[in-house]
Amino acid sequence: GETIKFEVEETRKDLSIIIVDDEALEELEYFNVSIRAVPGVFPVVVKNSQAIVEIVDNDLAVIGFSPVTYSTKEDQNALSISVLLMHGTLQRSVQVQLSTNQDSATESSDFVGKDKQLLVFDSSTSTHQVTVDIVQDNTNELTESFSVKLEMDDSAREPGVLLIPGNAFVTILDDDNAVIGFDGVPKTIAENAGSLEVSVRVLSGSVEREVVVGLSALSGSATVGVDFEGINNRALTFDKDTSSHKVVVSVIDDSAFEEGEQFLLLVSLISGDTSILLSPASATVTIEDDDESPGIYTYKC
Predict the structure, then answer these.
(1) pLDDT at residue 283 in the model
(2) For residue 156, what is the DSSP state?
(3) Of 19, 50, 115, 272, which one has the greatest count of Cβ atoms within 10 A?
């Protein structure tokens, strides 16, 4: 205790008490100050002998994402997001809610959403790792994104807690490649068959955005205009609603005897997603002649 001495005619004494400033976010605190007469000294009557001093906390705690941007491949299946006590210390528990918001990435189709997941911070817990599941599919897609947000419920809001940064952003990189190619092109065709139907389709995966593929029928040992009708980069458009095309190549029948002759079928990318794979991108077709071979005949006279 400290002794306070009043001089004659002195009616007031001011007492200084040092308040310790810290960085901890604390509840309202208080302490008591009491006075009493010193025994054996001039008799004094003490009234209002106790006072209560309240200490109002002026510290801020900062909770936020670190880092604020994330990138994940679709086949990684899950992403861990960090939420940290960035500044200050806590002497009482603080409740924070975490939610996801879809953007170009769609909840359930591209990721498993979070709706106000509760994160509790206190004197012994300064970090949380939140796992967001990423949905793996076989669809060829653009890079997609969603965001994650921190907030406090009104009933649990803490005026001394700041949520900074309160938003994080996630990018999902697609790992799927749709494959477009020839499907079951016959190796041979008879010259008198008239035409050959060629199928080009999506062989694996799926196409979500428009892709234009060019088909050509080119001369080999068979000649365009003589043995078959050529095709020059005919545009075939694929999208989420169109997964196959059939193209007819006309074969020219003549009366000349010829060895088997070949022409070449090719597909190439004209426009659209460059991650599309073209395979098989070529096929060779042999035109088999249906005319009789000229012979040597001997006649007796």
Answers:
(1) 95
(2) G
(3) 272
Report the pLDDT averaged over residues 265-292: 89
Q: Find where tokens 């969603």 sit.
A: 146
pLDDT above 70 for 56: no
Segments of 112-166 assigned E as strands: 117-121, 127-133, 139-140, 144-151, 161-163
Buried b (16+ CB within 10 A) or exposed e, 216-252: ebebeebebeebbebbeeeebebeeeeeebebebebe
- End-to-end alpha carbon distance in the chain: 155
pLDDT 10s digits, 121-133: 998 999 999 999 9
At 245, list the tokens: 């095309």
Sign of the C-alpha dihedral, residues 39, 42, 45, 47? Answer: negative
**Structure confidence at residue 236 (pLDDT):** 97
Please tell me what DSSP assigns to residue 43.
Answer: -
Q: What is the dihedral of CA 82, 88, 89, 95, to 10 degrees?
A: -50
CA-CA-CA-CA torsion sign (151, 155, 156, 157): positive
Distance (Å, whole) CA 160 – CA 181: 62
59, 36 Cβ separation under 8 angstroms: no
Point out which residues pair with 201 in neighbouring strands.
181, 244
Residue-wise pLDDT for 10-35, tens only, equals 888 888 888 787 766 566 677 888 88
In whole angstroms, how large is the CA radius of gyration of the chain? 42
CB 222 within 8 A of CB 199: no
Confidence of residue 276 (pLDDT cuts 50, 70, 90): confident
Predicted pLDDT at 295: 56
Structure tokens of 167? 């938003």
Cα 275 to Cα 140: distance, rounded to the nearest angstrom: 8
Tokens representing residue 226 in the block: 């003589």
Q: What is the pTM of this model?
A: 0.54
What is the enclosing helix (H) or strand (E) of 30? strand 29-34
